[in-house]
Amino acid sequence: MTTDGVSLPEFARNAINLASAGLGARPVFATDEFFAPLERMLQDSAPVYHPGVYDENGKWMDGWETRRRRGPGNDHAIIALAAKGCIHGVEVDTAHFTGNYPTACAIDACLSPDGPDERTVWTELVCSRPLGPSAQHYFEARSEEIWSHVRLRIYPDGGIARLKVYGTPALDRAAIGDNSVDLASSLFGGRIVAYSNGHYGHQRLLAPGRGINMGDGWETRRRREPGNDWIVIKLAARGEIERLVVDTAHFKGNFPDTCSLQAADLSGASCELAASITASSMFWREVLPQRKLAADNLHTYDAPELAASGPVTHVRFNIFPDGGVSRLRVFGRIAKAGN
Description:
By secondary structure, this protein is mostly beta strands. It has two domains: about 170 residues, Galactose-binding domain-like (Jelly Rolls), CATH 2.60.120; about 160 residues, Galactose-binding domain-like (Jelly Rolls). A hairpin with a 2-residue loop joins strand 5 and strand 6. The mean pLDDT is about 95.
């Protein structure tokens, strides 16, 4: 898998960006934000460049940019992750920063539910690594611990367009108990494994809240051949499906005609290979038979429309023949051990 010609490392493929503003990540502190505020660095949209656009402090840049240091030390920023979780790696993107990028960066993390302070102990996940102009830099961070915040250190100053922190949210099973929750939610750890087409985007299908526009969801290209589009999702935990919500918010002339859902329990699989999961998904048990969809609408399906599936770990959401869906919710209860 590639993005803009750059090969994605394993830790970034179909992963959850815990530093996504759209999922709830937020800026906490920055030593300096003179040229560009920290919050821009967490945006989900690709960084842009506007030639000739200036504000009162200088050139407008899409990211976080500090002023030129004239003394010792370096700049840093602290970000609260969208959800506590394990961190597998980070992406530091210096897009459009060509003469004003930092020479190097490092990443620290901490677990601080109430927010970090001067007593917080930080753990270095990525040691100081060199950066280049207008490029995506990927750094692996092997850690099985749970973190709530990250600290980005830049040397000595400069601008970063985007920071992505790839990881797995921590699922608090004790807090959830026997309650019904959205097992597909990105904030719990639900993630997209494979899809037939995502020409206009797919990453936000499992995000919290309702979509803000037609670009905030999953939309395929117009199908010009037989068949239908689909997307396969690994649930945050093995559970029993009780209710489905299909939201076509903002999709008015391009919503799918119908949809259906299949599910399977792959908990006994020795390894996860996207290709084999995709191939087998055609034959998974049908939980929701084909149902008509409407434009810009919330569609809720529960018993008796849903067939009993037992505990499942994956679902395949089918749309016929193509189109756009803003959000998919798969509500259920986490299966008890031994079930």
